[in-house]
Amino acid sequence: MTDSAAESGDAGTMRGRAAESSWKLWALLNADRWLVTAGILAGFFGVLVLVSAFAPVPLRRVLGQSDPNETLFQALVTAIITGVTLVVTITQLVISQELGAAGDQRERMEGAMQFRADAADLIDANVSPPEPAAFLQSLVDATRTQADALATAVEDTGDVWKDVNSYTDGLEANAAHVNERLADAEFGTFEVLHAALDYNYSWKIYEGKRLQTEYGDVLTDDADEALDDLLETLRLFGPAREHIKTLYFQWELINLSRSILYAAVPALVVAIAGVLFLDTPGTIIGTTLGVDNLVWVVSAATTIALAPFVILLAYVLRIATIAKRTLAIGPFVLRETDRSETIEWDDTE
């Protein structure tokens, strides 16, 4: 494989197309949501301790003159109850998508079966794989096979051979990378969708159509048929990925609802305890590591009470990032990007 093909394969991945830093992309997408939640809460706790420890007026004196703790924890109790209500609403919306009359469910079933039959025809199999990762892998592998057939069918001369091979080499490099990612991926984790996002099928459709327009008159019948098959498989990959994305979003929203409900109980207990027992500074005495124990307790209680909100933040960051990167289906590029250097044409007459 040529260096340019390898570069095209790397550029086809989401990381190669992203303008963000590796750390930012890792935090938004790859990192475990509980790890992100723990990191945000730890950072919040540390900031509270630092601010309270080095504030001009000690927290103990502030509490002796006014009641900021009571106001704070009363607000947190209200926020937690409101947040749980919001989570219940989100769960109801997710579940409502699965409800429907028998006729509606039958139409859904028939549509799914027809889609799987179309996929089986394209990948030349009797039955398409049932697992999401294996299903996507079969489509990606089919595009690699069809790209190889296209390259083989083109005569080894002229610009058409150069441009077609540049296109197919890049596609095969990207497909090999995605297939490797999908091989060990399991639905329920982000890995399946992440691997699918690494396959920029929309740009491959665009480049394939450009090839078809530019060289349609000189391509052999075998090459033209191979290119048609390749584009058809790429067009099928789009709705397949969107379907997997929809299932993943529903899965994540259900996980989000359960996580917030689990975190809401201890958070509510701590917030209520803060209202009842942390209003009097004298109940907590002494220092630890040179910091007033009252600061440690108030900071920890506030951090625990904020856990449901931070869990919501961690999950929504990933879901919103995925949604932003997959707004358009088909050959639309909604981000700033340089034109692919794998195929260059002069657009002027």
Describe the protein.
The chain has 349 residues and is an all-alpha fold. It has one domain. It is 74% helix and 1% strand. It is built from 14 helices and 2 strands, in the order H-H-H-H-H-H-H-H-H-H-H-H-E-E-H-H. A two-stranded antiparallel ribbon has the order 1-2. A hairpin with a 2-residue loop joins strand 1 and strand 2. The protein starts with a helix and ends in a 24-residue tail after the last helix. The model is unreliable at 1-10, 338-343 and 345-349 (pLDDT under 50).
Low-confidence stretches: 1-10, 338-343, 345-349
Helix content estimate:
over 70%
Q: What is the end-to-end distance? A: 33 Å
Order of helices and strands: HHHHHHHHHHHHEEHH
Radius of gyration: 27 Å
Which structural class matches the secondary elements? mainly alpha
**How many independent structural domains?**
1
Q: Given the C-alpha coordinates, what overall shape results?
A: elongated
Global mean pLDDT: 81
Structure at a glance:
The protein is an all-alpha fold. It contains 14 helices and two strands, in the order H-H-H-H-H-H-H-H-H-H-H-H-E-E-H-H.
Features:
349 residues, 2 strands, mainly alpha, 14 helices
Fold topology:
Blueprint: H1 3-11, H2 14-17, H3 22-30, H4 33-53, H5 59-65, H6 68-96, H7 102-122, H8 132-153, H9 158-183, H10 191-197, H11 201-215, H12 221-277, E1 287-288, E2 291-292, H13 293-305, H14 307-325
Antiparallel strand pairs: 1-2
